[in-house]
Amino acid sequence: MNWKEFKKDCCTLAERIPLSTFTGLYGIPTGGCFVAQELGSILNLPVVDSPGEHILVVDDIIHSGKTMLKYKEYSIATLFVNEVSPFMPDYYLNKVREWVNFPWEKTTLGSFETIEDNIVRILEAIGENPNRPGLVGTPSRIAKMYKEIFKGYSTLKPDLTVFENGADGVTYDELLFDTGSFVSWCEHHMLPFRGKFYIGYIPDKKISGLSKFARVVDHYSSRLQIQERLVKQVADELEMMLHPKGLGVMLTASHLCKEIRGIKNEGKFTTSDLRGAFRDNQKVKEEFLTLVSISMI
Asked: In Å, what is the CA distance from 197 to each residue of 31, 144, 159, 295?
C-alpha cells in the first residue's frame, strides 16, 4: 500500500463513521496513530491521548483481536480486519486474508516493521501505555541500543594484527596470557550474561598484540549467543589467525536469565576450549589453569 491508496481508503472509511456520535479519535500505536490523524483531518475531529466517552478508538488492522480486547468498551474503527479474527470492530473497510504492508512500516532495510513498532507492541502486551510521558521515547532509545550492543552482526570481524615471532629480536615460545571482561545476550530470553574471559596461547610463528583478544571477544559477544558457542567462536578465530602451538580460552559469566527468572539463583557458568598443547600437555594445561585462578582473585 502506498500513501495515495492509504488516504483513499481512509476517505472511504470516514464515510461509514457517523460524525455526530464522536468528539475525538484515539489511535492505537503505531499504525492506528496514522489512521487517526488522517481520519481526524477528514472528519474534522481532534486526536486525543487516551480513549474515553464519545472517543472513537482507531487502528490500522485487526489480526487476532487480542489488542482490541483492552478497548472493547469503546467504539472501534479500523481499515482492515483479518478474516480469521474473532473480533469485529464497529466500523471497518475490508476483510483481508494476508498481511497488509502500510507505507509507514517500510524501512531502508527492506522490512515492513521497525524495531520501534515492535517495542510499542511489547509495551502494550505487558499492560503499559506507550503514550505516557516516561515511555514516549523508549522505543527509539531501545532501537539505538540494539544497534550498538548487537554490532557483531553488522560490523566486520576485527583485524587481528599479528607479528612474526622473533621479528624484534626475541623469539617467544612460552605461554602468553590475557584476561578481560565481556557482555553478551542469551539467545533464549534476550537477557544479558556478563563475565570474564581468559586467553592463553603458546606462539609458533606468529604473535598478536594483547588488545586484539578483547576485540575478538567483543565482536562475537555482540550477538545473541549461548556461552558454549561463544567460547568456540573465539577459539576458532584466534587459532585461524595465529596457528599457535597451544591455545586455551575460558569464559566465566553470570546469566541474568538464571538470576531473575526460573530458578532465580545466582552463580557463574564456565566454558572452556583447550587446543594443542593446552589439551595434550598436562603441565601446560596446569600452568594455564593456575594463571586463570590467580586472575580470579
From this structure: 45, 27, 19, 10
Which residues form the domain of 36?
3-110
Report the CATH number that the domain containing residue 127 is assigned in CATH: 1.10.286.10
DSSP 83: T
Q: Where are the alpha helices (DSSP H) in 64-108?
A: none
Q: Are residues 197 and 256 in the same domain?
A: yes
In a domain, 290, yes or no: yes
| Residues 232 and 287 placed together within one structural domain of the fold | yes
CB 289 within 8 A of CB 270: no
| CA dihedral over 22, 33, 14, 41, signed as positive or negative | positive
- d(CA 230, CA 172) in angstroms, rounded, equals 28
Domain end marker among 123, 149, 175: 149
CB hemisphere CA count around 235 (13 angstroms)? 21
Please give the model's pTM, rounded to 2 decimal places.
0.64
pLDDT per position as a tens digit, 37-65: 999 999 999 999 889 999 999 999 987 77
Q: Which stretches of 22-154 are DSSP H helices?
A: 31-43, 115-125, 138-149
290 and 170 share a domain?
yes
Other residues' Cβ atoms within 10 Å of the Cβ of residue 71: 18
